[in-house]
Amino acid sequence: PTAAKTLFSLFQGCNPLAETGRSKLQNQRAVLNQQILRAVRMRAGAENLLRATTNNKVREQVLLELSFVNSDLQILKEELEGLNISVEVYQNAEETFSIPLVPLGLKETKEVDFTLPLKDFILEHYSEDSSEYEDEIADLMDLRQACRTPSRDEAGIEMLISYFLQLGYVENRFFPPTRHMGVLFTWYDSFTGVPVCQQNLLLEKASILFNVGALYTQIGTRCNRQTQAGLENAVNAFQKAAGVLSYLKETFTHTPSYDMSPAMLNVLVKMMLAQARECVFEQIGLSGIRNEFFTLVKMTQEVAKVGEVYVLVNTAMNQEPVKENIPYSWSKLAQIKSDHYKALAHYFTATILCDHELQTGDDEDQQEKALSQLYDHMPEGLMALAVLKDKARRKQLGKAHLRQAIVYHEEALRVCGLCKKLRNIDVLQEVLTAAHKRSLLKYAQQETEDDFLCLIQAPDILPKTEHKIETIAPQFSKVKVKDFFHKLGPLTVFSAKQRWTAPRTIHIPQGTGELGFHLKGGSPVQIYCLDPLCPAASMGLKEGDYIVSVGGVDCKWLGVNEVLEKLRSVGEQPLRIEVISCQDTAASLHSKSATYSVGMQKTYSLICLAMDEDKIDQTKKAPLKLPFLSWGTKNRQKAASTLCLPSAVAGSSQTKKKLLPFTLLNTESSLY
């Protein structure tokens, strides 16, 4: 217990009562979730009454009540949206002059008590004293409780992933595919606040993964964007967030929660990659942007790329069915950013044209090539080299780009003013206003006498980047966890998918000489080649039994050599061993040559071990194959298990050859 407590002390959540900005938001989210739950229940009751009644007066009263409930739900949804756009709380505490980044809020959950279900299962399924596992169950529940308030750093990420990996062990140990365990998991939708309740452990695993991604976004927004290291960390965090959310979308495809639907996750992945791209642009320009021709060309294409990805994000946010549940302010912020960064691209292009004349020593070919790469096509009647050489044409085209930049800036300010939540974010207003004034000042510095005669339209800027942004897949293998219920034995044998008899004690009297059986397999070891006339067989030992203890010492994790050593150490004393037998109709024989596949859905492996066909009676081999193959086909839809034929033909004598097992491995339900 002391070692377990020391190990667990590494994983502790934040103090839920601490009055930090983030904890206040999470507490407000929890309160809103409860209010939304009550309103949803009232609406469901009113709708049921409306369907059931035929009384017109009752129907009118119910319809009136429904209108009030729907109005309350809309208000609560707007309050929840306000929490989702409370980006200032998650930003770095240092003074910054950057557009805020959007984090994801953590999903809220109710407490879960594993004690009775797991203790009952240990007693019923594993035939062990469940009181010996109270500390392990308590550790599991403490870890889950800590995961509700993870710290906003790598330690918090490691804790969430540790619990996710621990759930993989718990699923295989205690959750059989044929029945529910009676453990109810409740998680609240991050966007709608509506609860989802299931007895399926996959909901728990998917929600924990969502919170891993959400925590990465909060780490990314917290980074100091005034330093190179801070921006690098932010880019890395958003890429990892996108990787976790992408993994969640591909692995858990039927989650009943809106925030974890494939369409919503696809939008969130796009948004996180767009924010990573935005941080890359800030990183390039952090040390200052030199007013030099080729530097400005590079910055123009980079910032145009940022504008392009936000256009894609905004388009995705306005598609059904995501449009109904995505926060309205998020969609508008994506639109604002797309307009803002497209305006910067036109401003940089105008600076190239207005501030840089082609000098005698300049490389005309390189400048012509660089300018041509900014456009899909030049305005009608203009050539890149001619524009570079002609001052008047450069000025005209530059002013056209400035006008276009001003249009985009004004559109960004207009959209920001229409959204109440965004209008209250001071730093956003300051950044947009400053960029708009800069473009106006640049335009005012140009000669204006020919404005009414200038009909040139600024062409669109082609986006281009030298920096690759992609998802970073979660590295679960880097987080080392130990199965809390390691004492139950090797997971490949002692799992919820296989049923075993209660341990039987076999007493072998002293002075019997040879034991009358051989051992095989890894851990635990199995009995094979049992002499039916030996004392152990007369005491109830069977072919294929697993040895779980020798002389009262647990040996579920010991190999053949270690068990043999314990058997020899008894000497001439009476020997007491405990064994268990498989209760499945097709006994599962452990063999070092068996193959175990995990992580591949709907994958079946048929492994046929070597058979000595010359010594097997051909007339008896054919009838055995048909029942096995038809049985395997009939049960193919069952959950993952390891099923084998018996090692010997029923009724055969000790002298006849045994059939080595055919093993069917089915991992259809294995999502971990």
Using brief descriptors, characterize the structure shown.
672 residues; alpha+beta; Pdz3 Domain; 3-stranded antiparallel beta sheet; 19 helices; 49% helix; disordered N terminus; disordered C terminus; HR1_rho-bd; HR1_rpt_sf; coiled coil
Task: Write a structural description.
- It is a single chain.
- A hairpin with a 6-residue loop joins strand 1 (185-188) and strand 2.
- The protein has helices at 2-8, 21-52, 56-84, 115-125, 134-146, 154-174, 201-222, 228-251, 262-284, 293-317, 328-355, 364-372, 384-389, 391-418, 420-423, 426-444, 535-538, 560-569, 618-634; strands at 185-188, 195-198, 504-508, 518-520, 526-528, 546-550, 553-554, 575-580, 604-608, 641-644, 662-666.
- The two termini are 28 Å apart.
- The chain has 19 helices and 11 strands.
- It has a domain at 498-583: PDZ domain (Pdz3 Domain, Roll), CATH 2.30.42.10.
- By secondary structure, it is of the alpha+beta class.
- The protein has a 4-stranded antiparallel sheet with strand order 3-8-6-7, with helices on one face.
- The chain is elongated, with a radius of gyration of 34 Å.
- This is Rhophilin-2.
- It is found in: Cytoplasm.
- Belongs to the RHPN family.
